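Justification of resources, computational component.

The compute hours requested in this renewal are based largely on the per-chain cost of generating structure records like the one below. Each record pairs the submitted sequence with a full C-alpha cell output. That output is archived, and it is also reused by downstream analysis tasks.
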Amino acid sequence: MNNPLASLARALGTRPWLMKTAPAVIWADKKLHRFTKGRVSLVAIAGLPSLRLTTIGRKSGLARSSNLLFYPHGEEFVLTGSNWGRPSDPAWTYNLRAHPEARIFLRGKEIPVVARPVEGEEYAEVWRLLLAFWPGYEMERAEAGRELPLFVLSRTTR
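The structure output for this chain reads:
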C-alpha cells in the first residue's frame, strides 16, 4: 500500500513557501537521522525515497553527508541539485564532480556508488521523468534561475 503522505508531499512541494522552510527541514532531518541511526528521514516518513549521500569534499578531502530525495531509476539513483531553489548548486554536486565515487546509505545499509552527470539529450528525458515524480523541481528551477544539475548514481563493487 502506498503512503498517502507522498501525494500530500508532492502537492506541498509545488508551493513557493516550502522553499523558505529549508533550514528547519534540514536541521530536523539531520537530528532525526542521528537519533534513528540512519533508519528514518523526514522524506521517508512522507513516503518518498530518500538516501544519505556521503561524498569526499573537493577542497577539504573530508567526508561530507547530505540527506536527499532521490528518483529510483531501475537499479540506479537519480539526484537533483535543486538546493531548495537557491541560485547556486549544492555543495554535494561540486564534490561529486571532483570525486564521483561516493557512498549512499539507504534504509540503514551502505552502498558504494559512482556518479555521472546527466547531460545533453539524456538530460531532457530524465528531467521529464523527474517532473512527473516531483513536480516542485520546476518551481525550484525557476526560482534558482539555473539548470538544475542531475546525477545518476550506479552501484559499484568496491
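The helical segments are 5-12, 16-20, 22-35, 42-45, 91-98, 120-133, 136-144. The longest helix spans residues 22-35.
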